[in-house]
Amino acid sequence: MRILVYPHDMNMGGSQLNAIELAASVKALGHEVVIAGQHGSLRGTVDELGLEFIELPAPGRRPSLRVIYALRREIAQRGIQLVHGYEWPPSLEAELACLRGPAIAASTVLSMAVAPFIPTGMPLMVGTEQIAEAERRFGRRAVSLMEPPIDTALNRPGLGLPVDEPAARWGIHGQGLTLAIVSRLAHEMKLEGILAAIDVVASWDAGMPLQLVIAGDGPAAETVASAAAAANDRCGQQRVVLTGQLDDPRWLYARADIVLGMGGSILRAMAFGKPVIIQGERGFWRLLDEDSLPEFLWQGWYGSGQGTRFGASALEGELRRLAADGSLRRQLGEFSLSVVVQRFSLDAAARRQVQFYEGVLASDANRRQRASERAAATVRFAGYKLGRLAARLRGTATADDFNAKAALRTEPDLSEVRS
């Protein structure tokens, strides 16, 4: 197969890193795979993995005609059979680029909700059982599950990473427990939990000292930096360390005693055998253990709590359990590693991805999506744009709509997930 993979961004982030690593693994299985996108910090990762990179023009408004025409040229020149867009803007641009042409478009959405204006006939992969079920009920005809895969060769204990030098450079003293957050510093989803973690560490008085290391960058960076500086001033010591974005944060996963976060970052921490506390919204924090695993396998590595004001106390309660019990930390770290190895390995995911591609190319229904489906998607997109305009006029617009609100439309059957 000849496949073009189009991540939604080429800067560090879980969805795009998954797209690139999966593309390299699919190529290793004997297929022709290229990456397309705008230049960003992950370009080096593309090169390291031996993938060809096609630079697309800056998009402007999405979907972008400039990008669509560029994709059409690549499809024609390279004989591309399938264009795989990640998240809604690349998915729509891939769909329009393939319109009335020889190639077929497919989509992966790893956000917490799927944009309703992605055509219902477009082959779709999502990251959780819950979202897959919700989208089938919405009327999508071809929905598959692709849980975020982890390269367990590049992310595992015992890699011998250079940990001491960067730890000393950033002032990570190792006196007590080191907590780590590796995250995009975004206002939606991320910021609430990061600020709660800073607050907990700043007020910590439970015996075992804590130091929190936050690696990442983004639009909320100034807010995070201000909160960290205030926390350190209040404590009279550097309890919160900000590294900015790390091109390779694996040394921090290896150095950490406990990792906080959500999504792909948590899975990478688990691959390093670390105990993890999953962050969500509205004050959600929960330790990963045998009791909580079915919940996360159903809804993803995320959750929704009872309210923002409960976040700091929820996190503090989970941290106290871990800080007081070294054997529990070791036990849960081993449990984390076993979950990743058994369920989230990159090799198994690549084979599932190839099966998905083969099914898309073999299906006549996917080749001839109904005009009515596209028309309905166009109406929903127009409604979305009007809603965005109204939100901007009210001053309530968010930067990342479909990661800012989760699609919690169904209740899990945890007995099935356990099996």
Describe the fold and architecture.
Helix content is 47%, strand content 14%. With 419 residues, the protein is of the alpha/beta class. It folds into 2 domains: 2-149 and 345-404, Rossmann fold, CATH 3.40.50; 164-343, Glycogen Phosphorylase B (Rossmann fold, 3-Layer(aba) Sandwich). The strands form 2 sheets. The chain has a 7-stranded parallel β-sheet, sandwiched between helices. The longest helix is centred in the C-terminal third of the chain and has 24 residues, at 371-394. The radius of gyration is 22 Å and the shape is globular. The model is unreliable at 406-419 (pLDDT under 50).
Short description:
With 419 residues, this protein is α/β, with parallel strands linked by helices.
Strand and helix layout:
Elements: E1 2-6, H1 14-28, E2 32-37, H2 43-48, E3 52-55, H3 65-78, E4 82-86, H4 88-97, E5 104-109, E6 124-126, H5 129-138, E7 143-145, H6 164-170, E8 177-182, H7 190-202, E9 210-215, H8 221-235, E10 240-244, H9 250-255, E11 258-261, H10 263-271, E12 276-279, E13 285-287, H11 293-299, H12 311-323, H13 326-343, H14 346-362, H15 364-367, H16 371-394, H17 401-404, H18 414-418
Parallel strand pairs: 1-2, 1-4, 2-3, 4-5, 5-6, 6-7, 8-9, 8-11, 9-10, 11-12
Antiparallel strand pairs: 12-13
Helix pairs in contact: 1-14, 3-4, 7-8, 7-12, 10-13
